[in-house]
Design a protein that fits this description.
- The chain has 2 domains: 5-91, Helix Hairpins (Orthogonal Bundle), CATH 1.10.287; 96-261, no CATH class.
- Helix content is 72%, strand content 0%.
- It contains 10 helices and no strands.
- Helix 6 crosses helix 8.
- The protein has helices spanning 5-31, 36-48, 60-122, 131-134, 142-154, 166-175, 177-184, 193-210, 220-251, 253-261.
- With 275 residues, the protein is an all-alpha fold.
C-alpha cells in the first residue's frame, strides 16, 4: 500500500512542532527559572513571534533557545496547517469522486450488470443454497448486508455452461460494447480497482464470445474456457452488487426501492408496486 505523502509530511511537521514546543518549555524552565505554565506560555509567544511585551529572555542561553524555537516553530506550524488543509481538501475531492464512481456503477447495473447477474445466477448450480440471502427487502437492516457479505467470502458458485444461452449473451454484450468502452474511459475508475477489473473481465468475455461463430460445435475444452470467463465475471459481480445495494440503501432510498423490485436474484421480482 502506498503511503500518502501529505499525511507523512503532516506527521513530520507535527512531530517537529511538538518537539520544539517541548524543548522550548523545558529550556525556559531551566534557564529563566519559570514554572511549567509560564514556560509553556513563553514558548508559544516565541513561536508566534507576536512579541514578549514586558517579559523577554534574559539569559544568553534563553535567547539561543528562543531563536531555535522561532526557526523551528513558525515553519513547522505553517507547514502543519497548510498540509492539514490540503489533506482535508483532498478527502473532500475523493469523496466527490467516489460519489461519481457510484453513479457510474449504477449506470452499469442499470444497463448491463443486472441482466448478466440474472442470466448467470440461473446457470449457477449452487445458487439455491444462498438465493434467500440475496432476496433483499426494502426494510432489510444493515446486519443482513453484513451477513451476506460474510457468506459471499465463503460461497463457491458453480456455473453450468449448458444453462447459459451463449448466443443471447453474445448479442447482449455486443449491443453494449460502446457503453463498456465509455465506462472504461471514465477517470473516476481510478478510485476502484475492483470495478475496473470487472469491466475488463466483462469486456474480455464479450471479445471471447464475439470470435466464436458456432457455439454448438465447441469442444469441451473451449466450453470449459468460456465457463471460466463467465465464472470470473459472475463471482466479482455478485460482490459488487451487494456493496452497491448497501450504498443505495444508505444514500438513495428511492433508487434502492427500484433495485429491490428489479432484484436479478429474485425470480418473483416485479417493478410494479402491487400494494
Amino acid at each position: 500500500m502506498k503511503r500518502n505523502p501529505i499525511k507523512l509530511r503532516l506527521k513530520i511537521f507535527l512531530l517537529v512542532f511538538a518537539s520544539a514546543l517541548a524543548l522550548g518549555t523545558l529550556g525556559f524552565m531551566l534557564t529563566e527559572k519559570l514554572n511549567i505554565a509560564d514556560a509553556f506560555y513563553f514558548t508559544i509567544v516565541t513561536m508566534s513571534t507576536v512579541g514578549y511585551g514586558d517579559v523577554h529572555p534574559t539569559a544568553p542561553l534563553s535567547k539561543v533557545i528562543a531563536v531555535i524555537i522561532i526557526v523551528l516553530g513558525v515553519g513547522t506550524f505553517v507547514g502543519a496547517v497548510s498540509n492539514a488543509m490540503e489533506l482535508m481538501l483532498l478527502k473532500r475531492e475523493r469523496k466527490i469522486r467516489i460519489e461519481k464512481l457510484n453513479i457510474v456503477i449504477g449506470a452499469f447495473f442499470s444497463e448491463l450488470g443486472s441482466r448478466l447477474l440474472g442470466i448467470f445466477s440461473e446457470a449457477d448450480g449452487n445458487i439455491e443454497t444462498i438465493r434467500k440471502e440475496f432476496l433483499i427487502k426494502k426494510d432489510s437492516p444493515d446486519k443482513e448486508f453484513t451477513s451476506l457479505s460474510e457468506h459471499l467470502r465463503k460461497y463457491r458458485s458453480d456455473i453450468l455452461i449448458d444453462r447459459v444461452d451463449l448466443p443471447h449473451v453474445t448479442l447482449l454484450l455486443a449491443k453494449h460494447k460502446d457503453f463498456l468502452l465509455r465506462l472504461l474511459e471514465n477517470p473516476n475508475l481510478l478510485e476502484s480497482e475492483s470495478f475496473t477489473g470487472i469491466l475488463w473481465a466483462v469486456f474480455h468475455l464479450a471479445q471471447e464470445l464475439q470470435f466464436r461463430e458456432d457455439f454448438s460445435a465447441l469442444p469441451e475444452s473451449d466450453r470449459a474456457h468460456l465457463r471460466g470467463d463467465i465464472q470470473r465475471v459472475y463471482d466479482h459481480l455478485i460482490v459488487l452488487w451487494v456493496e452497491y445495494m448497501w450504498h443505495l440503501k444508505e444514500k438513495y432510498p428511492y433508487l434502492f426501492s427500484l433495485s429491490v423490485r428489479t432484484n436479478p436474484f429474485d425470480q418473483q421480482a416485479s417493478v410494479v408496486i402491487a400494494q
